[in-house]
Structures are given as C-alpha cells and as structure tokens.
Amino acid sequence: MKGIFTILLVSISLTTIAQERCGTEIHTENMMKKNASYAIARNKVNFQTEKWIKNHPNHSEKTIITIPIIVHVLWKTNTHNISDAQIQSQIDVLNEDYRRANIDKINTPNVWQTIAADSEIEFCLASTDQNGNPTTGIERIQTTHGKFGMNSDIHTSSAGGADDWPNDDYLNIWVCDIQSGLLGYASPPSNWIGDGDGLVIGYQYFGRIGNVQAPYHKGRTATHEIGHWLNLDHIWGGWGNCGNDQVNDTPKQEKENYSCPAFPLNPNSCNTTNSSGDMFMNYMDYTNDACMNLFTNGQKTRMLAAINNYRSNMLSHDLCNTSVGLSEQIKNKRKLIKIIDFFGRKITEIKINTPLFYIYDNGTVEKKVIIK
Ligand SMILES: [Zn+2]
After folding, report:
1. Fewest beta carbons less than 10 Å away: which of 130, 190, 191, 275?
2. Fold for the domain defined by 19-315
3. Active-site annotation holder among 25, 225, 256, 328
C-alpha cells in the first residue's frame, strides 16, 4: 500500500513540474538563433534600458499609457472560440493588475506593500483597425491547424494562423489551442522589427470567465506575458539559479515557484540576508493565478523604459475609443484608501463570503463580497 502512495505522489509532483507556465525564454533563444540581427538587437536592450532609466530619473508625473490590443482568436472547435465576454474579462484583469486595482493586492505581504506599483499602464480592445475602420478589437478565424507550438504558424495566415496587425501600433494577442504543457509566451522588445511580435496564449488561460481552467483561470498568464513583452524577466532571473532580473527592488531568488506557497518562503536564499525570502506573489513568478498580486516600482520603471525605447507608438494614438462617460472616468481615476468590515475595522487580509467596504479617495464606497 505504501508503495502505491509513493508512486502516486511522484507522478503528481512530476506533472506539476512539467506544466511549464511560460515559453518566453525558449522562444527568445530560438529567435536569436534564427535571426542574427535580432540577437544583436536583443543584446543591446539592457544597456539601452539602463541608459534611458538614468536619463529619466523623474518619470513620477502621472501619465497613463493606454495600449490598444487586437485579439486574434484561432479556433478549430467551438470550445476554442471563446466568447467576447471572456476576452473582455481578460482586459479587465489587465487594467486591474497594471493599475494596482486588483482586489487581492491586500494579500501582498506588508514588507512589500510600499514598493508595489501602480504601473500606470492601461489596455483597450482596439476601436480602430489598421485601415482606419471601426473594429471590436477581436478577430475570429476558423482553422484546421492542430495545437499551436512556438513556431511561425500562429502568425502566418497561409499556415492556418492569423497575420499580425502592425505591431508598432497594436499589441497582437493570439489566442489558440496551444501545445500541452505550455500556457503562453511573448516576444520581448528590441529595435529589431519582425513578424509575430506579441503574445500567444492558450484559450483556457485567457480571461477569468468562460472556458478557463484552474489554477490558471484568473487571467494572470496575460499579465505575466505582457510583462515580458515590456522587457521584464522572470523574477528568479531566468536561466540558471539565483540569476539577475535587472530589477533592484525584487529580492534575489533561486528558482521559480509553483502552486501557492506560504510567506515567508526560502528566507536568505542565494546567500543574501533577506528574511522575507522569495517574492513568489510577483506576476513574473510561476505561482497559481490566485496567488499573484504585484509588480514592483523597479519593474514599472523597466516597463516604462521599454515603451519609450521600443514601443513608442503606444505613447500617443487614437486607437482606443475615448468617448467614456464622466462617471466612468471618475471611477477609473479613484484610488483605494482602505478596506473595512461591517464594524468599521480595517481589513488587511481578504475574507471570503464576508461583506467588505472599499473606501476610495473620491469619497465613493463600494460593498463587495468575495465568494469562493
Ligand atoms: Zn514567463
């Protein structure tokens, strides 16, 4: 009997490890091998980024950057053809996560609350297409292609994929039936221009309603992959142990974390004196969607440098519908001050099935109940 349990446990842990959350590092390496000019351009990025950050020490003025998205839905069966509502739920997650308006932000440990960033980046489904015509920002294409891997098929219409919209102007996101074991991948920025720039994500990991699959069912795969698209590395620094993610305020971390660990995890790892351990709830780790909740100020700076250096068309465009009502504008601009319970006690940890009151700086109060 004991033998059977051992075998079961081993097979469960192997399955967990085999679930590679993100193919960005492999994809980038493949691209660099294939295109010498891309390798040269990518190798300059860290230097150019640091130079930009040094020359722009005061980027503290509040400027919201809005990134227009085109979602290419590649579908073979109806299950892959996810609903508009599922796609919109992904846009909502992105706007919450990148503006630090995610309700689970109170789960960020206190020690990191002060460095958790409102990245001041927002997203829209493009309202104008590449020919200047109105669009929903969603393109649906039926395909006979099987599962998509990390090659050019996905962004080549003649191979059963969908062609890019101009990737200087739009963030292209291909949603498809992706190869098993992979949630998604992205192309990090550089001065090299080529097809296929953007994100590829499995349909069941996109959005937080509809055909989504736990534990990657809260839209954090796109949050993570857009981090790569804006030049963030994995928080453990990628290849090798205790690597460098080029961000000063993220603690050194030996390797990726899975599942949903308890804080603190691995204190003083990588020969550092860091009693808080791994920042496993950072969007650039591999933990479950429900356990991720922050980008840091250092990561924000690096993303802003990437937009200014390599994706500057995102700074000014009219590809997002701006006719938003005043009440909506006020709602979007407000800041959460605190969360209290029915008795007026300040809440520091989310409570399930309990009415909580969210108090904002514009005087509005919202009652929310989180149901599990
Ligand atoms: Zn990744």
Report:
1. 275
2. Collagenase (Catalytic Domain) (3.40.390)
3. 225
